[in-house]
Design brief:
Layout (H helix, E strand, L loop, with lengths): L5 E10 L2 E11 L4 E5 L6 H8 L7 E6 L2 E2 L4 H7 E4 L11 H11 L5 H11 L15 H12 L6 E5 L7 H16 L3 E6 L2 H7 L2 E6 L2 E6 L1 H5 L5 E3 L2 E3 L3 H9 L9 H6 L2
Helix pairs in contact: 3-4, 5-6
């Protein structure tokens, strides 16, 4: 069997008296989209920060492409890219200049060609010569993801990638994420949007109060609930029905509590 791209076992993390992760376990197959779904404060961003070597776990193990995040952080960093909740583009520069700058920082040959290729791939060629201050939210996020792909990392973490975007911009980002997986990139996506997980993910793990309470494909999760009869017609449960049944509360669209704790 092919080794999982990401493997997490017994991950624990606390901020003083706040226990954010209480033993998290999951695996992500290579070339798949894995959604970590949870409400505000569930611990999603903390998991991503540990996997990307920005934060040390209190207990447990995690590997990315076989590299242990604690014992070999350099190997992990060479294999991943991280896109946070807000687009990290330089508004003074054009889209093309943002890409060229990062390509130079990564010491890639022919940064201009790298930039032009990514602009074309993300349908930003016409906007490439304009300053990013004038980009729409969807364009800024697509550019942000394009920047994260410089150097062709095999694993990418997308932490709340559509936060604050309008519906059309969200669809643009979804199309981009699907393209990443089609090209063989492993994507770990954190989200509070049920429809986002439903549309994108090959597997969905529901993180609640620091633990994974369910993990499976969309169809596997739907089978956790019996069909409801509406006027003698069976209505199959949605991911929202499953989430509410398991968690007992809707997913919220606010910034996670653990981030606030970590910044104190």
């Amino acid at each position: 069997m092919t080794e999982a791209a990401i493997r997490v076992r017994g991950l624990e993390k606390s901020y003083k008296e706040l226990h954010v992760l209480r033993g998290v376990d999951f695996e992500v197959e290579r070339g798949s989209i894995f959604a970590l779904l949870g409400s505000n404060g569930a611990g999603k961003t903390t998991v991503v920060r540990i996997l990307s070597t920005l934060l040390k776990a209190d207990a447990g193990t995690a590997t990315v492409l076989g590299f242990d995040v604690a014992a070999n952080p350099a190997g992990v960093r060479e294999s991943i890219s991280l896109t946070g909740q807000f687009a990290a583009v330089d508004e003074v520069l054009t889209g093309r200049e943002n890409l060229i700058l990062l390509a130079r920082l990564r010491h890639l040959a022919d940064p201009g060609a790298v930039a032009d290729g990514l602009l074309a791939r993300f349908s930003l060629t016409e906007a490439g010569g304009r300053k990013t201050a004038g980009y729409s939210g969807g364009m800024r996020r697509r550019l942000d993801i394009a920047m994260s792909l410089i150097g062709n990392p095999p694993v990418i973490f997308l932490d709340e990638p559509t936060t604050g975007l309008d519906p059309q911009a969200r669809i643009e980002v979804w199309q981009t994420v699907k393209e990443l997986a089609r090209n063989g990139t492993t994507v770990l996506l954190t989200t509070q949007y049920l429809d986002e997980a439903e549309h994108l993910a090959d597997r969905i793990a529901i993180l609640h109060k620091g633990t994974i309470i369910q993990n499976g494909t969309l169809e596997e999760l739907k089978r956790l609930l019996p069909p409801a009869e509406i006027e003698y017609v069976e209505k199959q449960p949605s991911l929202e029905d499953v989430f509410l049944a398991l968690v007992g509360e809707p997913a919220e669209e606010t910034q996670e509590q653990e981030e606030k704790e970590a910044s104190r």
